[in-house]
Amino acid sequence: MTSLASVTLEVDDPAAAGQFYAAAFGLGSRSRVRAPDGALRKIATSAKKDKGPDTREIDRFVLLPGAEDVLASKRFHVGRGLTVGKSFGPGYVEFDTPSSPVTPGLHGRRAPAKDAGVAPDGTGSHRIAIDSGPFTDPDGFEWRRTSG
Prior knowledge:
Elements: E1 7-10, H1 14-25, E2 31-34, E3 61-63, E4 66-67, H2 70-79, E5 84-88, E6 92-95, E7 102-108, H3 110-116, E8 127-130, E9 135-136, E10 142-145
Parallel strand pairs: 1-2, 3-7, 4-7, 8-10
Antiparallel strand pairs: 1-8, 5-6, 6-7, 9-10
């Protein structure tokens, strides 16, 4: 796995979510939806200040599944052919995939859980449907091929 073409989000109402993501972010075929899972999603900006109206321009789409042990998961993914692009301490890593519209990475579970106000152990799905896999990583995420 050295490139991700899309990410499939599992949601309660695929039709409404598909319309929302298309209107809000204009991701086109890079984002797909289907029902349900319970995963956390976070939209963030690289801008440090509000510089004007929303443009719907996406600089980067980074997929960050929560990892119990980021270093162990990083070693696992490096062993599958990814190279590290950015790494910040023991809790965050992005992999270098210049030809991919989706940048895979890892984030410790505690920080995103705290942002969302949920327990870090989570009760949602551990499935990620991407154009990669199939395999199960050290955190129990089942990476599998999308069906289109």
